Amino acid sequence: MNKAIPEPVTKLVEAFSRLPGVGPKSASRLTYFLLRAPDDVALTLADALRDLKANTRFCSVCHNITVDDPCPVCSDSMRDQRTIMVVEEPLDVLAIERTGSYKGVYHVLHGVISPVNGVGPDDLKLRELGPRVEKGDILEVIIATNPSYEGDATCMFIEREVLRNTGVKVTRLARGLPVGSDIEYADAVTLTRALQGRSTL
Predict the structure, then answer these.
(1) Which of 176, 137, 147, 172 is nearest to 158 (CA)?
(2) pLDDT digits over 40-98, tens only?
(3) Boundaries of every domain in the chain
(4) CATH code for 7-55?
């Protein structure tokens, strides 16, 4: 350890460096920002982190992040409890909710199957989905994993292994050209999926 840098500073830089998307330089910038910032900025951050760990949990039904269990979406009688959308992360729930167009409930996997990264089905909230579908009066499961190799593999696993004998309707979010894009700049995979997902006018 560099003796010119106090140990508390080094410890905080190392702590920030463990966060996703934060490299050593960004970790150092954040640390030195907090050193120069008024005390209330750093203490507010510390309180927020303490509150996050002390007062949040995973919903026992959908596994989204919540304060109350079950979460507000699962306990909302106005939501369509017979439609479940399967998403990779809690941030995906926020993105879908921002559209205001989905009125069903969710099932959060907390990742995708990725053998390269050592993530298998048992590392996700996959096994809980089957019993949830069988126990409830579920009409449709919408798979909303990302359009990636891992997302596709997870989708296939859900369809073939988790929901195979449930008799429930399984759908997947449509994929294709984003609004406002030019066809000439689209990659082959996106164009192929746009062709496959075309609809009648």
Answers:
(1) 172
(2) 999 999 999 999 999 999 999 999 999 999 999 999 999 999 999 999 999 999 999 99
(3) 7-55, 78-172
(4) 1.10.8.420
